[in-house]
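# step 3/5: fold
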Amino acid sequence: MSACCVRWMLSHTVRAVCGGSRGYWTAASRCAAPGERSNVIASSWRWSPFCTAVDDTEQTLAPKKKNKHDPKAHATIGAVGRKIPHREIQVISQTGENLGTMHRADVIRILDEQGLKLVLLSESKDPPVYRLMSGKQIHEEQLKLREKQKAKAAPVLVKELTFSSGIAAHDLSTKMKRVESWLEKKNHVKITLRSGRRAPAVELDTTLEQMVQQMEVAVGFVSKPSVIRDGQAAMCILRPLSAKELLKQQKDQDAASQSDNSTSSTAESETPGPPVGSAETTEGSLQQ
């Protein structure tokens, strides 16, 4: 049998083993001896671009998905949806009441009936603690968390102001306006009132508190007026009111105004009017 026939049979054999993919011969197969040609064919055969084999070293690992129920993943408050990963959970009601341990199927039924959402509070406990909340409650809690994060991120600046108890009224007004501007910028203000040389002896902490009360801006105290330096000065640290404190103050003012209006209306209703028939009696006496 000629060499061409042998080459033709070997090429068809290799095609059958490799699934019919086309290949090509290298120079090594042409120069090899007939006894070694079969080994050379197996080692020198190369796959075409149409081969579907993939090298394991070229495969890239898919990125790991973030676990939704990882405690670090709950930096913000959000609903877990209907896919509750735990079979038994401890449920807190919308009003904060402990409903005890419930099966997740019962919890889903409550969510559907009342139109609420489920929020994970603590996964470390056994069973995990969840709370039923409305969409409005979740939004309010998210706003509170944002405010806390802003407060932690932005350091509070403390401004300092020192003046004597014998300060003139005009200079005191100027300094207090400066304090008000600092407070409006969300800064804390440290005020030190020292005793004047020619000023009369006064209780410095009481005087400082009266000065603060005369300010046009409502403030809170980080530290209330107190005597320092062996009675030679008084010091306090002021802060701006929080949104919660401002809301409470507004409610108190509205309640006080309503109380004053009701008191004045009651006093007007209780004021006695002129006696009936008094005008007729006076007119009759004048005719007589």
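# step 4/5: annotate
The two ends are 168 Å apart (CA to CA).
# step 5/5: archive (pending)
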